[in-house]
Amino acid sequence: xxxxxxxxILSRYVCLETKDVGEVSEKISWARAHQxxxxxxxxxxxxxxxxxxxxxxxxGYIASNARFRDRMGATDSASCILIAxxxxxxxxxxxxxxxxxxxxxxxxxxxxxxxxxxxxxSEVLSFSVNQSAIVRELENFLGRVIRAPxxxxxxxxxxxFGGIMLRRIVLRLCQVLDQNPGxxxxxxxxxxMERWLVSHLIESHRHNYTRLLxxxxxxxxWQVRAVEEFIRANAATPLxxxxxxxxAGVSARTLQYSFRRHRGMRPMEFLRQIRLAYVRDELLSPDxxxxxxxxxxxxxxxxxxxxxxxxxxxxxxTPSATLHRRK
Length: 327
Hints:
12 helices, about 20% strand, globular, alpha+beta, 12 strands, about 325 residues, about 40% helix, Arc Repressor Mutant, subunit A, single chain
């Protein structure tokens, strides 16, 4: 008998289908130790696990019709976010019991033990982010070295603006992973979304450095120009807001404020426009044969409807018209 999840998430990355919770405990321990045990009053105990490792994070999706308790050990190497797509349960951190359901996600900071309980059939997506990536991005955001460990609030409201955007990025990234099994780590779009996730987590979810992020003095025009030049030279690599703030030598909030003031857009919007321009250059180049979808994917665009709309808005014609004109 096979378990078919209700949500087709990471369906191309299934690594385990079993009735043995011991197997699940062993296989799921990609970021920290897990000890899973079944709870009484369950009808079946089938579980299905998917796993997709990326450069600075890893994604897992577990679907199970068993009631279970998962005791998770502490790790200093990663922070973990759990998003429930089906079912309801609870999690506890430092003795505090909190909801885990479609509205409330769990955020487990590095160095903390945690426990999760499910109450029946459940589907939960977890993504673990390397702590080194979080620290680097936060230091870039602040423009200074941090000393104390980063501690996130243990619950994240998925109906807040930050939660809605986080779910949207996560789902889009999982869709791209399923569409490109085997070579997803090498794709610019995947690497870019992975960096966006780290930036978004730091910027939109509360932690012990949040108050420092909201200081917004002005940066000079020369700093804005330095960021523009850096973006043009490095558009083929995954860039985060923290990377750009580090180039300017100011905090991320200051860079956002100054970029909007001097250029009328955010720095990540400027990055998208530069990448659109490079797609156009490829479509007009007579040297190498290409298609619209190939050129778009090379520059990190996977949602072709949005890509085509943005391209037409910027250049007054469709990307296929540009390609036809070259031919």
